[in-house]
Amino acid sequence: MPATNEKPVVNRLDFITLLLGAAFVAAPWVLGYHANERAAATSIVAGLAIVGCAVVALAELPHLFEEVDVVLGVLAAAAPWIVGFVQIPHAAIAHVVLGLGVAALSLGELWWERSHSGQAGA
After folding, report:
1. Which residues form the domain of 46?
2. Contact 70, 107 (CB under 8 A)
């Protein structure tokens, strides 16, 4: 049986990841780069993928999705250079900040789960 205080922390991290994914989806309009198809499409696709992983993680399905979120976060942070919209400052900054935020939260959650998994009976 898992420790009673472990799930609330993990769920909070998953919920924050979900919010970051939603921020990715909204960023093209909020930050004004919706006219650039590459930047906007990249934000929307990354955001929907991150939201999907967060929803699955919140549903307490297998925790492969934290590893997927790490990869998605790093790819989203690198997207301005990979896809070619680094010259659009608002889009590039949004991708780097939100992508690294998703990766950091997911790595934190993986660390939390692994470091507290042996304390289930304590």
Report:
1. 6-115
2. yes
